[in-house]
Specification:
Elements: E1 4-9, H1 13-23, E2 28-34, H2 38-52, E3 57-59, H3 62-68, E4 73-76, H4 83-92, E5 97-99, H5 107-120, E6 124-126, H6 134-144, E7 151-159, H7 175-181, H8 189-198, E8 207-214, H9 219-227, E9 244-251, E10 256-262, E11 274-277, E12 280-283, E13 288-291, E14 301-302, H10 303-309, H11 315-322, H12 333-347, H13 355-373, E15 379-380
Parallel strand pairs: 1-2, 1-4, 2-3, 4-5, 5-6, 7-10
Antiparallel strand pairs: 7-11, 8-9, 8-15, 9-10, 11-12, 12-13, 13-14
Helix pairs in contact: 1-2, 4-5, 5-13
């Protein structure tokens, strides 16, 4: 079996996690790792060597890596604002890129990503693992079978208590810088990625415009006051990012999407999901579904019981369970998104989340910032496909396809 040769750029926690998971796959070889921090890149190399018995090449400069290594693909798990610059450098060197999720800082970067793809033919796939979550894939299956009728509205978001980012500088993490200097929907990917597939975005439908509204910023400073020493830099740092940012997206098909960013107040984790159509709806926070004429009147049903009863488990997850695979990363979704990148992306050159979708999903963050800066005015969402969304090409149905 010919092994897929990959490199991992960015070897903090997430990048090293990817490198180790990939190293355990029989058809993959991690030939190189790269990071500006020597301890991180050596730790990743050590971990890979422990798994495979072979030490990857080590780099501190991703350009040197891309020019020296013969690669089938590259995984990029660096700071948010560097994802697209590194991805486009890889594409220009003939290497497809898989980028981690995060709040891209510029719409121009997203346009440049698409331009680079169209010039080089090398794709960039955002590694949106939540598209491969068991619940999200079952929901996709239910939706495509018409159970909800015509979809009218969706809700999603990232609701996660991340107040520990106040210690970002000690941990050499970049996230706090975005909260200091930006104010918008900084992390649209987890919630919006699955909803884009459910609403056929870029395949006969598109997101046309958005409006974002931000609350005041109190949560992070309050946490720092109560949990960090008086001399800590956070005590004098101004936070620009509002505690709650709500974004409403209008689609060309008439659907609406409510997207919420909520990471600096105390709360349990949620992706705030809801899909509502003419026949019923699904609601994430209570893991429930209601279908008119099927469910008891005005009463929720357990979602997992419903999909079991009606055999709506997604075929990919049926296979996952039948093979007895261990739950690798976020319940298994990390493993599946990496396999999708390899099997459909690298081998078949048909990534299930393509470059146009990756650019669109990333662009929501800076567009949201623009709307807030303009007093919550509507902002146009670019059509990165240049009209191709109207007549999309047929997609080969594979076990990793999301259509």
């Amino acid at each position: 079996m010919k092994k897929i040769k990959l490199a991992v750029i960015g070897t903090a926690g997430r990048g090293t996690f990817h490198a180790c998971m990939l190293s355990e796959m029989d058809d993959v070889e991690i030939t190189a790792v790269c990071d500006v921090y020597e301890d991180r890149v050596n730790n990743a190399a050590d971990r890979i060597e422990q798994i495979t018995g072979k030490r990857p090449n080590i780099y501190s400069d991703y350009n040197a890596l891309l020019k020296s290594e013969k690669l089938d693909g590259v995984i990029i798990a660096t700071s948010w604002q560097t994802h697209i610059p590194i991805a486009t450098a890889a594409m220009k060197n003939g290497v497809p890129a898989g980028i981690e999720v995060g709040g891209v800082a510029s719409v121009d970067d997203c346009k440049y990503l698409v331009k680079t793809y169209e010039e080089t033919g090398k794709f960039c796939m955002i590694l949106q693992n939540c598209n491969y979550g068991r619940e999200e894939m079952a929901l996709l299956n239910v939706t495509k079978k018409g159970v909800f009728g015509e979809i009218i509205h969706a809700q999603c978001g990232y609701e996660h208590d991340l107040r520990g980012i106040a210690r970002s500088k000690e941990n050499r993490h970049y996230r706090l810088d975005h909260y200091i200097h930006r104010n918008g929907e900084l992390y649209p990917n987890h919630g919006l990625g699955p909803m884009m597939k459910i609403l056929n975005i870029n395949r006969g439908n598109r997101m046309v415009s958005l409006v974002s509204v931000s609350s005041k910023a109190r949560g992070l400073k309050e946490w720092a006051k109560n949990n960090l020493p008086p001399e800590h830099h956070m005590q004098k740092t101004t936070i620009n990012q509002g505690d709650i940012v709500n974004t409403i997206i209008k689609c060309s098909g008439g659907e609406t999407i409510l997207l919420t960013h909520d990471t600096t107040l105390p709360r349990p984790y949620s992706r705030a999901g809801r899909v509502q159509g003419t026949k019923g709806l699904w609601y994430e926070d209570n893991k429930s579904i209601y279908i008119e004429g099927e469910s008891p009147d005005h009463e929720w049903e357990d979602f997992y019981e419903y999909i079991k009863k009606n055999d709506y488990e997604h075929p990919l997850w049926k296979e996952y369970f039948e093979l007895g695979l261990k739950e690798q990363g976020h319940g298994g979704m990390d493993y599946l998104v990496l396999r999708a990148f390899i099997e459909d992306g690298i081998i078949k050159n048909r990534p299930p989340i393509d470059t146009y979708e990756s650019a669109l999903l990333s662009a929501v963050a800076p567009l949201s910032e623009q709307s807030i800066a303009l007093g919550s005015q509507p902002v146009e969402i670019p059509d990165f496909t240049h009209g191709k969304w109207l007549t999309p090409e047929p997609v080969e149905e594979t076990k990793y396809s999301l259509n």
